[in-house]
Amino acid sequence: MRKCKYVFGIILIMIIFSLSSCMSLFIPSVIGTWEYKASDEDFLVKIIITEQKGEKFSGDLYQKMGEKELTLKITNGYINSDGWLDFSCSMLIYDQTSDETKNYGLYFSGNLVKDKMYLQVVERLDGAKQATDNMVFNKIYE
């Protein structure tokens, strides 16, 4: 009886390990260009994912507001098998009023559903929340 419990335990562990390995095969792909356009057409954000290895991904965030353009590196990108994802990008900026260098960051989290990313964006300056917005990005096929 004792051997039976031991063998059953080993079999159960092997089944759980096999299932968890299979789940990682179903990670959705986020590679490509994702775009958000504001209704006034003066504000454009593109998420360009260039590399994905399993659950981890990286790329660039491009933002255009009027004449100003900004490109940031996407770091710590993560997506799971349910399509839940998050990533961040940041840069150092110089604040002339306080004569200090500050860390400006954008933090994205949300869901990938087919050809759309539903994301909440949190803007932070030196860790303090400045603004929050919800955005829907569409996949661009070029």
Order of helices and strands: HEEEEEEEE
What characterizes the major β-sheet? 8 strands, antiparallel, barrel
Class inferred from helices and paired strands: alpha+beta
Count every helix, treating DSSP H or I runs of 4 or more residues as helices: 1
Q: Give the amount of beta strand, in percent.
A: over 45%
Trace the largest sheet across and list its strands. Answer: 1-2-3-4-5-6-7-8
Protein architecture, described:
The chain is an alpha+beta fold and 142 residues long. The protein contains one helix and eight strands, in the order αββββββββ. It has an eight-stranded antiparallel β-barrel. A hairpin with a 4-residue loop joins β4 and β5.
Summarize the entry for a quick read.
With 142 residues, the chain is of the alpha+beta class.
List the helices and strands and how they pair.
Layout: H1 2-23, E1 32-37, E2 43-53, E3 56-65, E4 68-79, E5 84-95, E6 100-113, E7 116-125, E8 128-140
Antiparallel strand pairs: 1-2, 1-8, 2-3, 3-4, 4-5, 5-6, 6-7, 7-8
Keywords:
142 residues; 1 helix; 8 strands; alpha+beta; eight-stranded antiparallel β-barrel
